[in-house]
């Protein structure tokens, strides 16, 4: 039972009346108070001047949240000034730094005028602009006609509002450990990958690493550690482009992908409004047991995660990924699924009058960071000729190699979008006596059928002549070997369809590839899911996934059928049947969430070789994401796995450990001013500040207006947030910084008296050491004070100035009677608590 404080309710009502007076004043142009309505013994000792005029703010500097029209921007220090010709009015001084955040058009910026020697914006220089400060909401409200502003969209800001973040270092990691006992023979495996980085201004310096250690019974341990890539990148907002210097993989929609060392300047679709951004690849498959999914490209790990048994769909790959991806599904029973997939590109379409481009130069390099080929340069572009047509093309040149491409894209309106292109290559390699010349033809199609609730995400066909050679194949051929798996025909398509009346969803993916010098490969997957009711059982779901992988004459066929039944508040029971190459497995699984952070699944079943059991547990911690899983199959194996994914961010404003999934990605450091264990919600998840009042929100969308907020429902009782929502638009890889206005400490009714034991002016404000308002003085000094920390010194302010200070006792939370505090004149260091 918490201790209660006896409160004089007459004094509380008087303080409430004061708040009402402040509200009335803000609604009127000018207000003259009738103090007879206040039940006061000393009506002459009042400080109500700050409420006398509508929106009057005492001269001085205030940190306010800036609101522009319907958008909330960021906190900014704003100085309020009283003009000499109108002392009853106060005006906000909009500094050049603040004006730069407003997103004004170039022509508007040229017409701006300033006063106070260029320190303050003349509001009348922007036609129709209005500005109003409101200390009750700690806000500065600006109204500017839309024709004076750059283009904006929901959750997207123009470049003038982008934030490069603060200087800092980061270390992101993903470690996976697994031990397997197979009929008495034990095998241990530890692997990891991650990114080390440093941010300075607009530059991001990164180093990617990956490692593996394997130990088997009777064999020597194998260890490997490698730095897979070193590079630096930065945004060029004026060009809507990104610059990358160092090692990289060619990001080309025309000439494939290969590793190189050099520089790349490319248009960045992420800098465009969300509805104009590009396509991000996704990977689908079926895990037969608890499994690890590794997605890599030319040996570099791009994505590494653990998944439970059943279908999986990975949709958070970076949309800058292009070319062929290698997918490896490592099952806990020891089996492995390997397949490749080509990332699909939607047809080249560009807004009318706009040009998108990619420029790259350097030398091919290998995994050991050694140069492996001649100097090359390449460029490609897409030009929006009109509303319906786009032209695109490019060239790649190097010693003994050249390639030229040209194509056109057409918006077919109701019939979708189509593009057609042809690429000509010429290569001279040691294995041939003359130059090899060949062509490659491609056609691509994309369409969303809204009226049928279906979509062709991508459909394409490509044919390459036998003598056509990509740059990657040319690099291999320079070593004297004819490159293998030279592409001949490729068909690929991705379809989705919703039957909403029947509650049925369909998803289909197909990829067929033939080669000039090796066997064809095929991959298809079909997924169907349906929600339905059976009697009293509601929201049952039925899902079926079938797949087939054919490569090098081998075939991997399988299907997965699942029926899920809701059970309890958050749990579900599922009956699952999987078939793989003739072997079948039947399992009964139970899935449930302990809370927002913890989920688990337990399974038991039977296969043709015996009984099985498995478990899967996932925990979203403040400092890391942890996944633990285990499997058992009678007479075959027992295995256990542990995955830990997280990172550390270190800056001059503070540091914190955190969970992370996008290595080296954009993040936001939030500060609750030293208050620990404050729940902060951002990017769909909740994290808590550490003992220093710091937390990091990771996987933030670049060039997208992101918002973070304090979860008021779970805020500790002794903490209150006077400002609980912040937002910002960060450039790629940035470490953003935002601070919440949080007051922590005990709350209660106190009596504040002056050193001569007279009451302070009615309406005076108490401020803590950080300048935060913690209470308003009522009759006879009676004050409801918040944020009381043991031994803290606070000040009393009236008339716009601090007049005295008082110090709280060493024990404030356990007081059983109303505390009396003496406010000593500034400069007097005596203790004022009684």
Automatic annotation (TrEMBL):
PROSITE patterns reported for this sequence: FIMBRIAL_USHER
Ranges where the PapC N-terminal domain occurs: 32-177
Family to which the UniProt record says this protein belongs: Belongs to the fimbrial export usher family.
Record keywords: Cell outer membrane, Fimbrium biogenesis, Membrane, Signal, Transmembrane, Transmembrane beta strand, Transport
Residue span, PapC-like C-terminal domain: 749-807
Domain of life where this protein originates: Bacteria
Keyword Membrane annotated: yes
Keyword ATP-binding: no
InterPro entries registered for this protein in UniProt: Fimb_usher (IPR000015), Fimbrial_membr_usher_CS (IPR018030), FimD_plug_dom (IPR042186), PapC-like_C (IPR025949), PapC-like_C_sf (IPR043142), PapC_N (IPR025885), PapC_N_sf (IPR037224)
Location(s), subcellular: Cell outer membrane
Signal peptide residue numbers: 1-27
Protein name, UniProt field: Outer membrane usher protein
Membrane topology reported for the UniProt record: Multi-pass membrane protein
């Amino acid at each position: 039972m918490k201790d209660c404080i006896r409160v004089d309710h007459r004094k509380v009502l008087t303080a409430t009346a004061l708040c009402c007076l402040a509200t009335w004043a803000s609604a009127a142009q000018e207000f003259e108070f009738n103090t007879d309505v206040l039940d006061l013994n000393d009506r002459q000792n009042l400080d109500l001047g700050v409420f006398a005029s509508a929106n009057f703010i005492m001269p001085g500097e205030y940190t306010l949240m800036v609101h522009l029209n319907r958008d909330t921007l960021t906190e900014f220090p704003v100085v309020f000034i009283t003009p000499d010709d109108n002392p009853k009015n106060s005006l906000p001084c909009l500094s050049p730094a603040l004006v730069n955040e407003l997103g004004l058009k170039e022509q508007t910026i040229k017409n701006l005028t300033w006063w106070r020697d260029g320190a303050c914006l003349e509001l009348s220089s922007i036609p129709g602009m209005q500005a109003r400060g409101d200390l009750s909401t700690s806000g500065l409200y600006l109204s500017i006609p839309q024709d004076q502003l750059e283009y904006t969209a929901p959750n997207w800001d123009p470049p003038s509002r982008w934030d490069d973040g603060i200087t800092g270092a980061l270390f992101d990691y993903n470690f996976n450990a697994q031990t397997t006992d197979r009929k008495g023979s034990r095998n241990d495996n530890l692997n990891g990958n991650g990114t080390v980085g440093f941010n300075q201004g607009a530059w991001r310096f990164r180093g990617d690493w990956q490692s593996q250690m394997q130990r088997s019974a009777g064999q020597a341990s194998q260890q490997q550690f490698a730095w897979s890539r070193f590079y630096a990148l930065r945004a060029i907002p004026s060009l809507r482009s990104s610059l990358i210097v160092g090692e990289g993989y060619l990001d080309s929609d025309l000439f494939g992908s290969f590793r190189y060392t050099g520089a790349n300047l490319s248009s960045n679709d992420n800098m465009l409004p969300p509805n104009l951004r590009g396509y991000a690849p996704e990977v689908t498959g079926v895990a037969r047991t608890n499994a690890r999914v590794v997605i890599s490209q030319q040996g570099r790990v791009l994505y590494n995660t653990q998944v439970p048994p059943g279908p999986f769909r990975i949709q958070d790959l970076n949309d800058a990924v292009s070319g062929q991806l290698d997918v490896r599904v490592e099952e806990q029973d020891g089996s492995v699924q390997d397949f490749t997939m080509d990332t699909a590109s939607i047809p080249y379409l560009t807004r009318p009058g706009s040009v998108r481009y990619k420029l790259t130069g350097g030398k091919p390099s290998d995994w050991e960071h050694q140069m492996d080929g001649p100097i090359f340069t390449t460029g490609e572009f897409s030009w929006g000729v009109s509303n319906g047509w786009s032209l695109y093309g490019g060239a790649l040149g190097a010693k003994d190699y050249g390639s030229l491409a040209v194509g056109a894209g057409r918006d077919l309106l109701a019939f979708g979008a189509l593009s057609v292109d042809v690429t000509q290559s010429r290569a001279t390699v040691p294995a041939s006596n003359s130059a090899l010349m060949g062509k490659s033809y491609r056609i691509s199609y994309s369409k969303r059928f809204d009226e049928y609730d279906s979509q062709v995400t991508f459909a394409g066909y490509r044919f390459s002549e036998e003598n056509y050679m990509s740059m990657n194949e040319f690099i291999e051929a320079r070593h004297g070997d004819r490159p293998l798996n030279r592409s001949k025909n490729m068909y690929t398509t991705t379809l989705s369809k919703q039957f909403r009346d029947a509650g049925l969803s369909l998803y289909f993916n197909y990829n067929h590839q033939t080669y000039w010098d090796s066997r064809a490969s095929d991959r298809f997957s079909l997924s169907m899911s349906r929600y339905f009711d059976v009697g009293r059982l509601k929201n049952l779901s039925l899902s079926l996934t079938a797949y087939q992988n054919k490569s090098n004459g081998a075939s991997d066929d399988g299907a997965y059928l699942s029926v899920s039944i809701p059970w309890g508040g958050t749990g579900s029971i599922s009956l699952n049947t999987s078939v793989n190459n003739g072997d079948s497995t039947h399992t009964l699984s139970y899935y449930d969430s302990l809370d927002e952070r913890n989920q688990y699944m337990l399974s038991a079943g039977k296969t043709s070789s015996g009984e099985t059991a498995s478990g899967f547990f996932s925990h979203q911690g403040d400092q890391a994401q942890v996944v633990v899983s285990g499997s058992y199959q009678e007479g075959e194996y027992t295995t256990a796995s542990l995955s830990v994914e997280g990172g550390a961010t270190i800056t001059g404003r503070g540091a914190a450990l955190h969970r992370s999934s996008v290595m080296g990605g954009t993040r936001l450091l939030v500060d609750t001013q030293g208050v620990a264990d404050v729940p902060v919600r951002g990017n769909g998840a909740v994290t808590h500040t550490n003992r220093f009042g710091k937390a990091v929100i990771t996987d933030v969308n670049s060039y997208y207006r992101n918002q973070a907020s304090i979860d008021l429902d779970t805020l500790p009782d002794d903490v209150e947030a006077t400002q609980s929502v912040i937002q910002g638009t960060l450039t790629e890889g940035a470490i953003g910084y935002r601070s919440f206005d949080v007051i922590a400490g005990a709350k209660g009714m106190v009596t504040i008296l002056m050193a001569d034991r007279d009451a302070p002016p009615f309406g005076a404000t108490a401020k803590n050491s950080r300048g935060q308002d913690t209470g308003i003085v009522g009759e006879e000094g009676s004050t409801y004070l918040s944020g009381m920390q043991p031994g803290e010194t606070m000040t009393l302010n009236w008339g716009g100035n601090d007049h005295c200070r008082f110090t709280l006792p060493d024990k404030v939370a356990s007081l059983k009677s109303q505390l009396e505090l003496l406010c000593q004149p500034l400069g007097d260091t005596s203790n004022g608590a009684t």
